[in-house]
Amino acid sequence: MGRFLSVALAASLFTSPAYASGGSTGTNPWVALAYLIAGVCFILALRGLSNPATSRKGNRYGMAGMLIAVVTTLVTHSIASLPEILAAIAIGGAIGFVIARRIAMTAMPQLVAAFHSLVGLAAVLVAGAAYANPGAFDLLVNVPGTEGWPAERFMIDPVSRIEMALGAAIGAITFSGSVIAFAKLNGNMSGAPIILPARHWINLGTLAAIIGLSVWFAFFITTPLPGWLFPTIILLAFIIGFLLIIPIGGADMPVVVSMLNSYSGWAAAAMGFTLGNTAMIITGALVGASGAILSYIMCRAMNRSFISVIAGGFGAADTGGDGEAREQRPYKQGSADDAAFMLQQAEKVIIIPGYGMAVAQAQHALREMGDVLKEKGVEVKYAIHPVAGRMPGHMNVLLAEANVPYDEVFELEDINSEFAQADVAFIIGANDVVNPAAKTDKSSPIYGMPVFEVDKAKQVFFIKRSMGGVGYAGVDNDVFYMDQTMMLLSDAKKMVEEIVKAMD
Question: Which residues belong to any copy of the NADP transhydrogenase beta-like domain (predicted)?
Answer without folding.
Answer: 32-501
